[in-house]
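User: Fold this; tokens only.

Assistant: Input:
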Amino acid sequence: MALSSNSIIHFTNTKDALKGILESNFKLKYCKEQIETTEGISLIGVPMVSFCDIPLSEVKDHIIKYGSYGIGLTREWAERNGLNPVLYLEKNSRLGLSLEKAYDHFVYAPEGGLEDLLDENKAVFDIFRYVKNYQSDLVRRGQVLKDYRFSDEREWRFVPCYSEDIPMIIGADILGSNDDEDIKYISDANDKLKNITLDFQPNDIKYIIIENDNEISEFLDLLRRAKGNKYSYNDIERLMTRILTTEQIVTDM
């Protein structure tokens, strides 16, 4: 059995979120990421959409943590759109030390922000937006899973190019702030992010994952309503055969 899949899957925990993706493509958001190294813990908000590269037969645990709804797209689509697997970092590794030195030399700007850096320095910092700890605590729905192995998720990310007119990250000092100026900064950053979407075509879809059989007709109706501007009759016929339920995955695969 292959260790990776020929598709990448984005999971979400709400029906409405999946409907929004099918109707209007992927919308980006700033996701909180915690990176732990020998120098301490950094918390940043990264503008992105994340996916997993896990075969359907092995995806049950991922569904439990991240949601019962999802969309799987082809690996070719991921490559065309510049997605990349995450760089998993062991916090005490030599690579971690090297990245810290690279940050201190090329990125750290005590008298300015990231927007003031040269493009080549931004390119170095871009690497950090794809970094995740190999193993650390996972917080989901108020619960903490100790020493969770993030590498098991086989995450891929879409992150906008550093040349886009949006903040490359939102720093920890702003993420948790109640200051009016910081709140406005986050709001303005999210408004700029609305101009960037991650698009796909019907032929790029390999799976549509819903919670149970009772929802099949509901999603087929959604695809039919979208027929005029996105899904043709042939697209809908093909996608009917691509609908899976989490009940099937958990029970049969």
